[in-house]
């Protein structure tokens, strides 16, 4: 049997081929796009053939790449399932929950202590990823997904609906639209665009604002970064009411005016075959309690009385 190439190179190729993106592969594996590119080039040198056609802002598989991808994808899937089965057979109670990096940092992490207190015999692992993790492959057991349900081959349970609103550091002194005109607009870059994608252009259309350049400002590819920039007072952003809920309650951030933009929903999802898994049901119960105990509606009503609300139509 001929020796295999380094496992890291095979893993990098498999992830890049599955996403057709070095960046998304890097997000999934927790490395840089440069590291993915290096590992892929190493594999290409070993087999003596190109695996990707590198094009501006995207990549495509070559004929050799198309041939190699399916067996490698199946092999890594089988390995993940074997590890998951071995972990279950040890008797250790552990469950892995995946979400976006921003949701993990701003919503899940502050609440993990209560899960541990309620379930001292279960280890909860948080797996942040900007790519959609395949829950059937064993990398994670359950997930928080943002979007429209249902999700194929997954049990989906709604948690809450999203809203986006103009948010800033109160030290900026923004109180009305006259102040907005002199502020830096902060933007989040969304991979998928639809009628629910928050943008300053959409907000201005709904608010009836026509004299603001919605193209200017700073653009961030990660929600965590745009939130941090807003907290640092670098400008005003359209932020998730879910992700900055605690920051609004503490006074670290403020919503000076409306309107809000409707978003989609957050859902707790897991494979249909795992519906009876006690660990997943423990996470389900914890999330349900956290959502029920979040006084977001009361806070929103209180803020509505304090701020100038613009017409939404």
TrEMBL record:
GO biological processes: DNA-templated transcription
PANTHER family associated with the record: GLYCINE CLEAVAGE SYSTEM TRANSCRIPTIONAL ACTIVATOR, HTH-TYPE TRANSCRIPTIONAL REGULATOR
Protein's gene: gcvA
CDD domains assigned to the protein according to its UniProt record, in alphabetical order: PBP2_GcdR_TrpI_HvrB_AmpR_like (cd08432)
Keywords: DNA-binding, Transcription, Transcription regulation
Official protein name in the record: Transcriptional regulator GcvA
Domain HTH lysR-type, residue spans: 5-62
Family, similarity comment: Belongs to the LysR transcriptional regulatory family.
Compositional bias annotation for Basic and acidic residues: 304-313
Pfam families per record: HTH_1, LysR_substrate
Region called Disordered, residue ranges: 294-313
GO molecular function: DNA-binding transcription factor activity; sequence-specific DNA binding
NCBIfam families: PRK11139.1
